[in-house]
Amino acid sequence: xxxxxxxxxxxxxxYQNPKMRADDVNDAFANEGVKAIIASIGGxxxxxxxxxxxxxxxxxxxxxxxxxxxxxxxxxxCARLGLVAFHxxxxxxxxSQLENLPKAFTDHITEILFNPQPTYDYHPYNAYSDGYPxxxxxxxxxxxxxxxxxxxxxxxxxxxxxxxxxxxxCIEVLEFMKATRYxxxxxxxxxxxxxx
Length: 196
What we know:
Blueprint: H1 11-16, H2 18-30, E1 36-38, H3 55-60, E2 64-67, H4 72-80, E3 86-87, H5 103-114, E4 127-128, E5 148-149, E6 165-168, H6 171-177, H7 186-189, E7 192-195
Parallel strand pairs: 1-2, 2-3, 6-7
Antiparallel strand pairs: 4-5
């Protein structure tokens, strides 16, 4: 495991140095010793690192990229380059809680990352946790709020089967990308199922 400098930098340093964050991403893609890039957490203002990313390095060294929330900017950027990006757990919010989450969570992540198949059938978990206890209290790190029973999928629109590529992410972060050169083109969005 490799931890990059921006992982533990303070918020002021991160805000003042979007290029530093981008340099870490560029290096992670270029580094042959790095097999997968998993975000430590979302990361405020990730849209500010996009101008400093090296699209040739990223495109020419595809690898697993996973995270969620503000990482939607990076996932979208990489998807536009033709890479497969995973909207999934981060280190702080996901992997650090493995022992407190249902076994189905670990099984799902293991299957996706280590036993990839051309297709995958998603099944709802029997339980879920609606957030985390306050991380300001160090004794809460790695914990989740009391699990709630899950009755299964809740369909918001339609009732028929739909086929296509799935694309989406954090809607607030996608809004940050609107009207920038990083917003997906109409050709990119063609045939995709958009899920905010």
